[in-house]
Amino acid sequence: MLFFFRKNTNLFLNYYKLFIFYALVDFIRIINKGKSTYVPCDVRKEIELNIPISSDDSIINLAAVHRTPGHPENAYFETNMRGAENVYSFAEKHKIRKIVFTSSIVPYGAAEELREEITLPTPNTPYGISKLATEKIHQIWQTKNVDNELTIVRPGVVFGKDENGNFTRLYWGIKKRRFFYPGRKDTIKACIYVKELVNFMTYKLTNHKGGMELFNCTYEPAFTIEQIIETIKDIIGLNRHIIMVNGSLLTTAASIIGYLGGKKLGIHPARVKKMVSANICGKKIVHRDTNSNNLFEEAIRDWYR
Question: 281: closest CA among 205, 195, 214?
Fold first, then answer.
């Protein structure tokens, strides 16, 4: 999905990451009083629109094949990289000077060590490799003109209304007593609420320092899986004791259950293996007077409403 931002009209293209799209729609309805236009297209193909486009417009590029596991390896490259090239060409053609691109923390690769924006990315999955390559395509666009402004955001796990992803599976896993700690409780999982991500992205459209800026978009400090679970339990009133199971045993069980049809229920060995820490530093987007614990609790309350 692409999102074109202008003062009185907004254009949305290609429906990936729908729940972030919906959050953007809600935001725009507030600031533009409902003056929006929605135009579907496929970013894997040349972008041609029969509507007025000007150099005063801005682009928020959300288009991606991102769920992993869940897609053939080539699909990540076809959509993410080719889509970025077509966005690049579209921006060049219409002399658009501002792009916000949503990347991901996956280019950092799986590791326990703290990852900052200056950390060398070492992606180890097709999705992560495609996302890093897509960042580079956007950076090439930025260097073509001194007036081009590029913001790259690397969100952690994004949760919010209708995300139907990690947090939704976690909630139902806790509620239905299907979730177990896979060998540890201190796995760090960097995350951010969708509304905070949207607020930051739209803020950068009018508050950019020039050139290219890169931001990890996560709470700071990042929370452990135990802290996330305990907060969810407290906010929604779930009284559950979650046991810890040997990680290797859980992976083996997930492989068997997944083969027998459990993948349709979200039971997949690859998701168990993803319980390696995503230890991402979010200091660059944190204000000194904010408290991540309070922000996270408020976000869970808002999400659960």
Answer: 214
DSSP E strands in 129-186: the ranges are: 149-155, 157-159, 181-182
- What's the pLDDT tens digit per position in 52-111? 888 988 888 988 887 766 788 888 899 899 999 999 999 999 999 999 999 999 999 988
CATH code 3.40.50.300 for 2-160+191-218+283-288: no
In whole angstroms, what is the distance from residue 189 CA to residue 222 CA?
A: 6
Question: Given the structure tokens 């658009």, which residue do they identify?
Answer: 96
Task: Compute and round to an integer the Cα radius of gyration of the chain.
Answer: 20
Token pair for 90: 């579209």
Structure tokens at 29: 């309805």
Question: How far from the centroid of its chain's Cα atoms is residue 143's Cα?
Answer: 25
The two beta strands, 37-38 and 58-61, are: unpaired
Taking CB atoms within 8 Å and a gap of at least 24, the contacts of 206-213 are 208/98, 208/149, 208/151, 210/149, 211/142, 211/149, 211/150, 212/139, 212/142, 212/150, 212/151, 212/152, 213/150, 213/151, 213/152
